[in-house]
Amino acid sequence: MTTATSRRSDRRVSPVFVGILAVTAVTGWATWTGFAQQPGVAVFLFVTAAWIVSLCLHEYAHARTALHSGDITIGAKGYLTLNPLKYTHALLSIVLPVLFVIMGGIGLPGGAVFIERGRIRGRWRHSLISAAGPLTNVLFAIVCTAPFWLHALDGVPRDFRFALAFLALLQVTAAILNFLPVPGLDGYGVIEPWLSYNVKRQVEPFAPFGLLFVFALLWVPSLNNAFFDLIDAVLRPLGIGALDQYCGQELYRFWQGTNEFCSVSR
């Protein structure tokens, strides 16, 4: 009998994702070589494309883990192709996270692949499916910060270093926010299988508003400062200081004009 995941096309990497990778590679090269006439534009495109790649990998991790946990419908829904247009809410999954990066430099998580939880047995499997996404952001952050904590920055162009630092910041913020035990976020999905039925029933109506609740809290100045202090405390031991973080975000926001301080920093 043919299952929903037996067709090779269900698992073939989407041309859309390949195109996003190509944009990441080309703009990364332009940032590295200084080829672009306006380096800020190259950094903007490089970081944005790389951020979308990480969003695709985040959702793919959820889907792949669900497949191996028993949801054989994942392939037929297109979630294994890495095509962001196949997600349940393309607006939440891609557009809003990119807007949050542009507006506030925060890697807020998006939604989502639809997983048929009824096909999955075992609380640990349910928790692992939810944890797989933010763990991908952790892995992405490790890759972005590797040149810093390996002290391998010799020969790395300044603008590319700043871009990597900002991209790492986005991955760390996404991982931390996603692991919050707030309904609608992956952190709640990790603990939900271990909660009583009554607790889950009471919390369920709030799940659609969890992301908005977190976003609203981040607008509170004291909480926003505390959050970014935490991000800084994570990034500094990895070799990314405040200068790299600041200049990475300033370079990304090219429409605000050139920051002379960052342009002369080495």
Please describe what this structure looks like.
This protein has 266 residues and is mainly alpha-helical. It has helices spanning 15-33, 39-69, 90-104, 123-149, 158-178, 186-191, 197-203, 210-217, 221-235, 242-252, 260-264.
For the largest beta-sheet, the strand count, sense and barrel status come to:
none
The share of residues in helices is 55-70%
Low-confidence stretches: 1-6
Q: How many strands?
A: 0
- Give the overall silhouette: globular
Nearest-integer average pLDDT: 88
End-to-end Cα distance, whole Å, is: 62 Å
Which radius of gyration do the C-alpha atoms yield? 19 Å
Q: What is the percentage of strand-forming residues?
A: under 5%
SS-based structural class? mainly alpha
The ordered H/E elements are: HHHHHHHHHHH
Count of helical stretches: 11
Layout of helices and strands, plus pairs?
Elements (H helix, E strand, L loop, with lengths): L14 H19 L5 H31 L20 H15 L18 H27 L8 H21 L7 H6 L5 H7 L6 H8 L3 H15 L6 H11 L7 H5 L2
Helix pairs in contact: 1-2, 2-3, 2-4, 2-5, 4-5, 5-10
Task: Write a concise synopsis of the structure shown.
The protein is mostly helical and 266 residues long. The protein has eleven helices and no strands.
Give the tags:
about 270 residues; mainly alpha; 11 helices; disordered N terminus; Site-2 protease family protein; metalloprotease; protease; Rip2-like; peptidase activity
